[in-house]
User: Fold these one by one.
Assistant:
Number 1:
Amino acid sequence: ENCDWKLNMKYGGEKMAVNAVYFSFAAVAMGIVALVFAFLVDVPVVAVVTGAIGMFLGGYTQSFVRITQIGGPVKNKLVAISILGLFMSVIGFVYAFAHLTF
C-alpha cells in the first residue's frame, strides 16, 4: 500500500514491446546459427558460443515478453518464438559441446 506500483499494472511502454519483438527474433536467429554451426558446418566452438547466447536470449525474452504491454495472440506468438529459439540453442549447444575436442 505504501508503494506506487500496482500488481495488476503492466510494466514498460511501447519501446519495451518493440525490444521484446527484436529479442524474440534474435533468440531464434541465435538458435538457427547454433544448429547450423553444430550440424552443417561442424565448427563446435562457434555453435557452443552462439548456443549459449541463444539460451540466454530465449530464456530472458520469454520472461521479458510477459511483463510488457503486449497482449493477446501477439504475446503468445512471441513467447512461442522465444521458446523455439531457446530450444534450438539448447540442441545446438549440447550437440556441439559433446563434439568439442580439447
Note: The mean pLDDT is 86.
Number 2:
Amino acid sequence: NLHGYFLNYKLLFYFLNSTKIKVVWTLHDCWAYTGHCSHYMDANCDKRKSFCHNCPEIKYYPKSFITDRSEKNFFLKSSLFSKNKNLTIVPITDWMYQDLKYSILKNANIHKPINNGINIKTYKPSYKIQNQLLKKLIPREYFLGVSSKWDNKKGLNDFLELSELIQETIVLVGGLSIDISKYKNIIHVDKTENVQELCSIYSNAKALLNLSYQETFPTIILESLACNTPVISYRVGGSKEIIRNGINGYLVSKDLNALLKAINTIDKIEKSDLRKEVLNKYDSQKNFLAYNRLYKNLVNE
C-alpha cells in the first residue's frame, strides 16, 4: 500500500509518468481512487463517484486530525494516476473490480481480479495445542476473533456485547489497547508464537467470527476454512465472495440478533471438507502464477 505514511506518491508518479516503465499496481483497498479513505463501506459513502469532499472517514486510517484534504487529494490522484498510460490495476476482489469502473481509475487497464491467497501447506487442521499457556486458557468450546489490532471498526464493541449474551467463551487473538478483564467470558491472546499455534486455535474453535465493519478480502476467513473451521461474518466486502450460506458458514447483517441466530445454527455446518474449496481457489501459489502470466504478457507487448 502506498498510503502508510511513508511514501511520497506524488513524487513517485511524477517519475513514473515521465518514463515508459510498465507498472502493475495491486489494490488491497480503495485508497487509490478516493480522496482520503481506505474503505468507504462503513460510512456508506458514494462521493468518490463524483468527487470527494467533507470526508466522513477523516479521523480513520490514514488519519488526519486537523485538516480535511480529501477534495484536493481526490483531484491530485485523478490527475497523477490518469496520466500514466503504462499502468495496469489489479484488484484483489470482485466487488472492487466493479467499483473501479465508476472511479477515477476507470480509464486505466483494469485487470480481472487476482484474489489474495494463503499458503495451504501451512494453514491446515491442527488440533493439538502445544503452548502450555494456551492449553490452560482455551476451553473446549469457544468462538474465535482474529485481528492484528482490535478496534471498533474490527467489531470489538460487538464482541464485548456478544460475550454477555452467549454461554461459550470468546477467544480474541491480536493487539488490544483497552482492559477487558471485566468481561469474564473473553480470553485474550495477544499474539501467537508461530503459524502452527494459530492453526491450532483456528482448528479447535466452533467458528471464526468476522465482525469487521469493512473488509477488502479477509484472509483470516481463508485461514479458518483451511483449518476446517466455519465462519460467521458480517456481509461486507470480499466476505460475500468467500462464504456460501449454510455450506461453509453464514453471512449476516451487522446486527447481534442475526449474529446470535447464526451462532445457534453453526453446528449444522459440516466441517470435514471446508478446506477443499480453499485448496481449489485460494492457493497462494496459483495466485503467484497468475501474476507471473500478467508480467510476461506485459513484457511481450
Note: The first strand starts at residue 23 and ends at 27.
Number 3:
Amino acid sequence: MHANQTLFSKTIRSLRLLNRLTQQQVAEALHVTRQAVSKWEQGKSLPDVDTLLHLAELFQVPVEALLGE
C-alpha cells in the first residue's frame, strides 16, 4: 500500500468518526455503497475524482487535506 493511500484511509476514517457518521451514512451521502467506504478506510481502493470532491464537501475540508498534502 502506498503511503498516501494509507494516510488517506486514516484521514477518511478519522473525519467520519469525528463527524459521528457511520459508513452507511457516508455512503448514502455520496451515492456509493457502504462497501466502497469500507474499502477506502482499509486502503484497498480509492474514490474517483468526483467522489473525492464530494467527500471534501461532506467533511468541509480541502481536497488536499484528504490526500495528505
Note: The two ends are 17 Å apart (CA to CA).
